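FAQ: What does a multi-protein file look like?

Like this. Sequence, then tokens, then the next protein.
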Amino acid sequence: MTSSIRLAVDIGGTFTDVALELNDHQFTYKVLTTPRAPEQAVLTGIQAVLEQAGIGLDQVDLIIHGTTLATNALIERKGARTALIVTEGFRDSVEMAYENRFEQYDINMERPAPLVPRYLRWPVRERLNAHGEVLLELDEQGVFDLLPRLQEHGIESVAIGLLHAYANSAHEQRIAAIIRAENPALSISLSSEICPEIREYERLSTTCANAYVQPLMARYLR
């Protein structure tokens, strides 16, 4: 039985490591990471181990890839300029979070700032109940009125997180359709797709994080 040929790539902040497993042999290569174009280091490393092993890329059965690109973007606050569209009255949910604190007795503790600042968190009129039933229809004109702000603020990515959207995604989907019709290349993340779970803070913050790094990862993966 022939063993599979496996190729693994890990992008770190300083080095990119590539390893190739061929039968009982392993071939490795370490190259400096190229932050502005991470794929360059990846391609260099892959070419090096393939030459060491004397095989072509088409002979590789499995490629495993890990990267800290998204994590680094979050930590260093170097992600996309992101806007958040929320149900009217819930603009500050991502900032209020919970009463509990991770440093319980530190009276000088400061929470990390939200990925999306308040002036880029935009409310729209609509309301669902916890079962997903419509209590207030989406104010579509209010959504259209937001469109000029996207260009005005140089928005690269939009997070959409409406109250109880985990139970009914129709309003989120409609907002996304309106935005895409005007800005088809804009990155859009829906809370009903990214984190369709109860509890607004977790759902909104997760969707914001996805929107914040999605353009970076899309450019890299292309």
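And here is the next protein:
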Amino acid sequence: MSLSDEKAIFEIMSSFLERVEGWKDTIMTAARVFEVPDHEVMIVIKRLERLEEELLHYQIFGF
């Protein structure tokens, strides 16, 4: 993946996370509706939290 691809992904996810307040609750609700096992939901949430931290770092320091 090139640097420009990574930057584009960060920008898209940043926009998404900024727009969706309470995204964890939204994911948990959708998971319950579709009967997704809790451990799988937690994996996704942990990945998004890590991405959120990386986005914050990117916004502060750049690449």
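Q: Is there any per-entry metadata?
A: Some entries carry free-text notes. For the entry above: The chain has a mean pLDDT of 80.
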